[in-house]
């Protein structure tokens, strides 16, 4: 909201508050002349309407505040449920043990194999989504004719509308066999095909937001570059891209946090076994896939399996929270510049 | 002189090459979408028939259908929409029209931006602990619907705010000048004018909720269910029943997940069939949303 907007609403509010004082004598005079019952006087009606206004504002505020309640609910339950987990398992075991087998005996509670699975699939997805998404954004913002852009953008956004379980099917039934032709010996369940499909899914997050950021760069910057003899691609890379950088990086960060939290693609196509490896051609469970796997079984409330999914959830939440906060700061800065 | 020509030719070539690269990269996305649809159609089209839509899941792939899961999806969506839409629109109106610039408003805004980035499975964990066990809702349609409502709330709020922001300030000032109260301005002017934008956002949010799988698995939705929840309409008075809210459920994406993770190829065909239904509904909703957005943009010129 701009400053002008704020000041005009404030003015109107002040004006409306002054009305009853201005009109009160008139209303009183009207009372005396017509002997109407006081409940129907304009000032009483106005008082009633002001109570109604207050009431509505309070309701609307409660609705807005409910989002804070949801966050409190999320953080509260994660902390509460995982605190019973960490009463059994030391933080040291959690962070350094090389195995994650909470449902076996003897159970081991090292989260790192799951974190590795998440990081490897995320890295594969980003290796696909960031270059392609950036090139698409530059193409749409600087090269494509307006009608092409108007058609391509919504079509690309459909990529992020496809349900993730359908992508999981696609990764397992289409991408895995396809990649097996390139890498013979690739197992059916592998992090590579899950990561590639996940990367394609998040292309629109990168391309749409980056394109918005690049189009917000003032035309005069481009004109300056053209006047110096630069062509379109040099202008795009040397002038527009740096000028829109904070918006573009914010879109990258959104893509990272999507990839970390993505569940169904990896649960279907990347395998369900925790596996400490850097090799994307191997199968491995991610944090999210583990939560799904445990939830599918019958899970007694309060059991160690039940607590372990909350411990995994806390890890996931902290990982995405860090990226979300960085992204929010960058978006804020990006909005202030232009 | 020939130097200049050389440089100009070189730069034009650079532009041309990038143009090709850009088109190729764009095609990666579009071709994948095409391959995805083609793959589902080739595998699953044979399963799309009336029996598939009206049968319960079964141990035998050929007899299995998606009746209980699409009914589940429909009921969950009723709960989700009737919670998230009023709450989200109200919150959007408050933040855009009422909120003063103070720390509380800032807190709510940062919070909404952050909620939009929380992975969906975390909402499932929250709902499992809070709704299913603390509030004792159990693993029911009500708990599932509320979970998805929380999940799409930020999308609805952001869409409402953006729609309100496009309305020129002059409209508000004109209404105030005629003595309208704030709520009258909102009720009679801002809500109707922003309806198109808000509807677009709501439809997109619902299409996202229909495809959500992970949070519902987390709260314990069933993967095999061979009965329907009690009907919401009854023969005798009071004619409506809310018993279905407390019924266990399955949804389309969970049914698909269940089939796709079986080794038997016949069930994979079923998964493709369920996927086709799912993707048809999502794309249809998105098409409607795009159409509304297009018509609103064309009709309204402030």
CATH superfamily of the largest domain in chain B: MetI-like
Beta-strand content bin of chain A:
under 5%
CATH fold-level topology of the largest domain in chain B: MetI-like fold
Low-confidence stretches of chain A: 1-34
Cα shape of chain B: globular
The span between the termini of chain A is: 15 Å
Structural class of chain B: mainly alpha
Instruction: Count up the helices of chain B.
Output: 11
Low-confidence parts of chain B, pLDDT < 50 over ≥5 residues?
none
Please give the number of β-strands of chain B: 0
The number of distinct structural domains of chain B comes to 2
Any descriptors?
heterodimer; A: 338 residues; mainly alpha; MetI-like fold; two-stranded antiparallel sheet; flat; B: 302 residues; 0% strand
Summarize this structure briefly.
Chain A is mainly alpha-helical and 338 residues long. Chain A is 78% helix and 1% strand.
Describe the structure.
The complex is a heterodimer of chains A (338) and B (302). With 338 residues, chain A is an all-alpha fold. In chain A, a hairpin with a 6-residue loop joins strand 1 and strand 2. The N terminus of chain A is likely disordered. The longest helix of chain A is centred in the N-terminal third of the chain and has 47 residues. Chain A contains 13 helices and 2 strands. In chain B, helix 10 packs antiparallel against helix 11. Chain B is mainly α and 302 residues long. The chains are: A mainly alpha (338), B mainly alpha (302). At the A-B interface, helix 1, helix 2, helix 4, helix 5 and helix 6 of A face helix 1, helix 3, helix 4, helix 5 and helix 6 of B.
